[in-house]
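Signal protein PDZ (Arthrobacter globiformis), 289 aa
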Amino acid sequence: MVTIQTSGGIGSGVVYRSDGTIVTDAHVVEDEQKKPFKSVRIHFADGSQAPATVVGVDDPTDVAVVKADRGNLPAAKFSTTLPEVGQLAVVLGSPLGLEQTVTAGIVSALHRNMPPSEGSPQGLIDLIQTDAPISPGNSGGAVVNSNSEVIGLSEAYLPPSSGAVSIGFVTPAATVIDVADQILKSGVAAHAVLGIIPTDISPEVASRFGLPTTSGALVIEVAREGPAAKAGLQPGDIITQFDGQKIASVTDLLAAIRKKEPGQQSDVGFQRGQDTKSTKVTLGSTTKG
């Protein structure tokens, strides 16, 4: 476990390869405009420090890779399978700058989704929930099991002011490995995209625009010549099905798309006015245009 210092604050990271490659959360190494810092500083467990460059970031999963100017590091072992609910979860990191802090709890749930927000406009999908305390500064640090295997990276927590008690979220190790390896290979990670900007349908929106339902994902913009446009989707359509799965919200739609690969074809069911329609969409890629 390492501490990552930037001009914006402090976060945590995990040694991915012995050559100085480190994985962390993208928001740890980005500024408020979501632009990666050119360089950061790494604090190691032995008290030494080294400069590092940001190799790449992936905002859809909030995973980043940095390369420290130091080799012969002990790389962490990542678990390739999801943990089970109730298993031990040990959080390592630098909460509030307190380096090498350890907290513990259990895996509370799997496959949690966080809806889009200002800091994460695409939402965060398929997270692990834990009751192990996670605080500012823990982001990007390891969460390990009883075998000292990394099951994921600390991602976020619900603050006590929200009424929550010990609710934290972790990016699964499988996601971290997949994204990190893509970044190391090509500098970016590819994700499937539909080519729309959707929004949830509040009762106020439904009333204002005369929409027949508050369930589904309302299409407010369609990318020109994008996958959705080519399939005939239009602003004002309400997506209600995706490959047979009911879509009740934007988060449902994002989660369904995230499970797909660029180039795959999916069936999209939608409402247009009082008509129920369906179309086949060949999904695009975040790495193209």
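The domain at 2-68 is CATH 2.40.10.10 (Thrombin, subunit H). The chain has a mean pLDDT of 94. ok done for today
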